[in-house]
Amino acid sequence: MQRRQILITDYKDKICCAYLEGDKPYDLVIQSPEGSPDRVGNVILGRVEHIVKNISAAFVKIGGGLTAYLSLTPDQLKNLRCNDEVLVQVKKAAVKTKNAVLSQRIELVYENSVICLYRDSGGISKKIQDPVQKDRLKKLLEKYSDCPFGLVLRTNAATASDETMIAEIDQGIQTMEAILQRSKTCQAPGLLMEAKPFYLDFIQSYQRQEIDRIVTDMAPVFDFLQKENYPCLEFYEDPAYELKRLFGLEQKIQKALDKNIWLSSGGNLIIEPTEALTVIDVNTGRAVEGKRQAETTFFKINMEAAKESARQIRLRNLSGMILIDFIDMKEEEHERELVFYLKQELAKDKIKCMFIDITKLGLVEITRMKKNKSLREMLIGEAKKQEIGEGSI
Length: 393
Description:
By secondary structure, the chain is an alpha+beta fold. It is built from eleven helices and 21 strands. A six-stranded mixed β-sheet has the order 16-17-18-19-21-20, with helices on one face. It has a five-stranded mixed β-sheet with strand order 3-2-1-14-15, with helices on both faces. Helix 5 (219-226) links the parallel strand 14 and strand 15. The model is unreliable at 381-392 (pLDDT under 50).
C-alpha cells in the first residue's frame, strides 16, 4: 500500500497543504497566512447593508471593506432591516466575482465533534455503523441533554475515548458561549472568532488512521500541531535540500494547472474550466493507432480516465457542474462498469461530489460542492505570468 502523507510547507510566500498517496497529490490547498474577514469558518457580527427581497437574501458588511451574501428564510426577511446586526459565519469563500457566502447557523468543527448554535442540529455520523460504538456515543450525548447547543459526533468519534470527547465538547461549548457573550458588546462589523488555521482543517478532514505521516518544515506549524497530539507528525530539517524540492512540489503544482493530462494507456484528458461549468474530454490520443480491439482499448482508456478525472477534480478543487465526455463504447456492460468505478472514485473525495446522470448525448454529469477557491484561482497571480503548457503529474 502506498504511503499516505500530508505535506505542509511554504510556497511563494503562502502555506501549501498537500495530501499524497505515494508521490501522487490528490488534495491541494494554498492560502496566505494572513487573516481575512472572509476566511471560511470566521464568526462575525455583521451589519446588514442591503436587502434583496426578490432573491430572499441580504448583503452584509463583514469588515475589511468586504460584503458577503446571506440567504434568508421568509420569516427572517420580514424582521430584518438595513443596519441591523446579524451573527453570521463564513461558509464559502469568495469566488471570482461572487461574494463570500454567510450563514446564521454557526458551527464549531472539531476533530471528533461539531458544536452547533441551534439545538435542531445534532446526532451521530451515519458512517458509524458499529452498534457497540453507536450505543457508547448515544450514552455520551445523554450527558449533554441540557446543553443549549446542538451536538454532532463525527466519524472520528468512533475511535476517540470518552475522556477525549468530553474535553473537546466542553471546550466547544465554552467557545460558543464566549462568542455569544462577545456579540453583546462587539461593534459591528467585528470578528468574534477567527477560524482555526486552514492546515488544521485540512488535516481534520481525514481520519487519523487514514494518514501515515504529517511532515512540515515550518516551525510555527509544527509547534501548533504538536499540541494537537498527532502521533505521525514529523519536523523536516535539512537546509541543504528543501522539503518542497524533496517532493517536487513546484512541478506538481504547475502540472496541476495544465490543460492536457496524459494517461499511461496513451489516452489523454483535456480539462477546460469555464464560467458556468468544467468540461473534461477523454481522448484516445496515441492509444488506438494500430490496435484491432478498439472496444477493449476504449474501455481501458475510460477506466483510467475515470480514476484520473476524480483525482484531478480533487487536486484542482473544481466545483459546481462538471461534465465528462468519455469515449463512446458499444457494450452496455462496459458502460455499467465504468459508471460504478467512477462513483467509487468520487466517493473518496472529502468534499461532497455526486454522480448525477448520463445525458442523452452521452456526457457524464457531476456536481461538487463549492468550499474554497479552485487551485487556479488560488494561484491566479502566478498563472497569469506564465504560459500553461502540456504535461501530467
